[in-house]
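hey m, so remember when u said the tokens were messed up on ur end? i reran from scratch. heres the input so u can diff it against urs
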Amino acid sequence: MNKNKKIILAVCVIVVAGILGYLLINRPAKNQEPVTDSNGGIQLCFYRENITSSKLIDKTWLTMYLKGTEVTGELHNIPAEKDSKRGPFIGSVGDVDKMAMARTADVWWETTGEGITNKEQLSIIFGEGVASVGFGEMVDRGDGIYVYKDINTVDYSLELNDVSCEDLFEKIVVEDYIRKNISTISTKAPVLGGSWYVVSVDISTSKDTATVVYEDGHVQESEKFKYTQEGNTVNIVY
């Protein structure tokens, strides 16, 4: 093989390697495989976060346990600058819509927000790695239970992507620990005898880090921590 052919071959190898590397890095994220337990039930988890114009984080997370036509789970919708709504639900799930390749869960949501608990109708469309939660104007049907005023105008624009249930549990446990213990976690002292409270928490389960924004009513601070987590036990690593 002459010198020119060797150079051409080497260039081709480099180009092919570069293309393969690019495809591996930029390939679409694979949908999470549903977890089936020993009773034949399927556990699904979904998560969404959005950084607001104020640099705060809106968060929504959803868990669903499917067994036959029955479904139970939890939905937590936690906007950074609006009232949150969270709580468990129970209901039924329909067959797969062959056109949309999705199923619809019709459930009753025991939702709590600002100290008030209501029972509300809730519809969730899920499939192909995405869950869309239906929100719309609600009315009391006469017995204290709230239903959609018009099922045809329900907005399903709130979309959550499927995630590992293990990762979601880690996010929930770590954030809860930080919010409850920020006064001892922070390396800085509040001013004028105040006390710290958490504004937002951004957790990376792949890096085991948490970026926390907190304030005391006078000043705002931001710190990034490493952590370890085992079950419900969390430790901050300085």
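this time it looks ok to me. The CA atoms of residues 109 and 178 lie 27 Å apart. if urs says something different then somethings off w ur setup not the seq
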